[in-house]
Amino acid sequence: MIAAISLFLIVSLSALITKIASIALIHTGLSTESAKFQARSAYTGTGLSTQETENIMNHPVRRKIIYNLMLIGNAGIVTVMSSLILTFVLPETIASKLYGLLIVVVGMIGLWLAVRSKWVDRGLSRVINKMLKRYTKLEVHDFA
């Protein structure tokens, strides 16, 4: 059960990290859709070789954001996989395994709904923007 809960927490933290990175990339002048895509692809290690990628690599702040995201992503993916395996290997009874599966399924559905929610997105964006303004030297650019 602890492995299932840790899996849920790690995936939640991963979603938050990619959200922070995408907002930081938006602050450097990248479009919202491009920033979301580049943050997620860097976190998962599935970067694409496109003109957008070249724009990121030629910008020192964007490059630093993506570099850190790639490092964090490697640790996050390994931890998620090990937690997922432990969720089903450690329990000795079928009931424990089913309970772990229930936690994983319900947790992931809840997380998916939260990630897709416009209300949650707006609230997180406000908080992250305030934190980035306060604790970083990123210039806020609104190119919309």
Description:
By secondary structure, this protein is mostly helical. Helix content is 81%, strand content 0%. It has 6 helices and no strands. It has helices spanning 2-27, 32-44, 51-57, 60-89, 94-116, 118-135. The mean pLDDT is 82.
Q: What is the number of E strands?
A: 0
> What form results from the Cα inertia axes?
elongated
Series of H and E elements? HHHHHH
CA gyration radius, whole angstroms: 17 Å
**Uncertain spans, ≥5 residues at pLDDT below 50?**
none
The SS-based structural class is: mainly alpha
Question: How many individual helices?
Answer: 6
Instruction: Provide mean pLDDT, rounded.
Output: 82
Largest sheet: none
Helix amount, in percent? over 70%
Oligomer: single chain
Give the amount of beta strand, in percent. Answer: under 5%
Instruction: Calculate the terminal CA-CA distance, rounded to whole Å.
Output: 45 Å
Brief summary of the model shown:
The longest helix has 30 residues, at 60-89. With 144 residues, this protein is mostly helical. The chain has helices at residues 2-27, 32-44, 51-57, 60-89, 94-116, 118-135.
